Amino acid sequence: MRTEILEPLLPALGPWLAGRRWFDARYAGAALTAEAASVMGDEPPLLLHAVVAARGDSGSVHSQLLLGLRPDLPDRLASAAIATVPAGPWRGWHVYDALEDGALLALLLRTLAGRGAPRGPRLERMSRYPLPVGLVPRPLQVDQSNTSVAYGDRLLLKIFRRPEPGPNTEVEALRALTDQDCARTPLLYGAVHSDAPGAQGLVLGLVEEFLPDARDGWEEAVRQAGEYVDGSARGVPAGGGFTGYAAELGRAVAEVHGALGEAFGRTRLTVENVAEEAARMTMRLKEAAEEVPALARYTARLGALFDDYARVAGRGCPLFVQRTHGDLHLGQALRAQDGWRIVDFEGEPAQPAAERVRPQPVLKDVAGMLRSFDYAARMGLASAEEDAAARTTPAVRLRRRRRASAWAARNRRAFVAGYAAAGHEDPDCHPVLLRALEADKAVYEAVYESRLRPDRLPVPLAAVHRLAAAVR
Q: Which domains does the chain have, with CATH numbers?
């Protein structure tokens, strides 16, 4: 299908796109061009799959759309309406968000499985596991840069709303982990592509195993941190109720790192490589201190820490890098009945694709998870103080803050111990490297929070203070 059907819709799609959580806000109001379009279905409702490009001063970005076409829009879909087709074979038909229409999501799965019309997106099979169809679709309201649809309790379709030319970092990682029979990650069924002109070469999504009973690691940690901080929940152990989970999570992350190392290999860094990375850390710190003045008092000590990191390699301590998760935190971990699963291997979304696949020390992922425990403790503290604001005294507030710090410290230690117990690498054997990586992450967080969530700036600043104090 050519893109003529999209052309008259672009004026209406622009404002609609600007309101989507996954749309890059830098391109709001930018001119749109139709890159690719295909229509699936032989009778209403029809599914219009489209790729559009927004162009601005900083370049261009692709957006992937799933739109429905109906001559009449039922009341249940009224809130999903976008526009009316002004011209062409579907003139007068209603265009709406297809995610609200289960019939169209079912058609999409049949198409991907090769049982629909030979048009639109196609699934490149990447595993030996068959793709079931006939499952009831359900969009999940948990994503930002992507959109996910669960099919029954078996499949998860992840739609990359801002598709990029392949290879895709998450597809590559999950394919390798599935080939390795890694029990700590979802199985990958395949990647979604399109042969339509304008979309060729773009990776549009993936289909993976769905974990219907898994609990979000971030939500679980915050809940248990809040219970421990408040001290009012019965049956909460002295160290909080999450330390066992934290140790298990450490083992799960180590297993994933082991499988990624087997699949992609490991490389020893040269002294020059480490010195270059330390210099980049120092430069990031300098730039961050200019934007966040509260960091300025720590630049000397953190700079010394980064120099120590470089000197470790100079003394002959081997440092290895490999493929990692790239954006690891508690929100990327799901606690299923049979243990933890690690998800979302796309890396830091703000980084270019080439940077996301660059081999890194595994301790960079470990540092990211350690920072996440600090955040969970802070959010648990905020929850406890909000629930009991009427009966708070200075002494109670101090006790809660101490308990939050203790919860974070205990779970950080448990995670590291669990990671070491898996037998791949002991983070405690590389204290300088781990502190440097955690400090670099905390500096990044300080800039992020100062820009978007200034009320949370004290969280990374507390970490910076703690890490700088440890430098002699």
A: 3-209 (no CATH), 215-469 (3.90.1200.10)
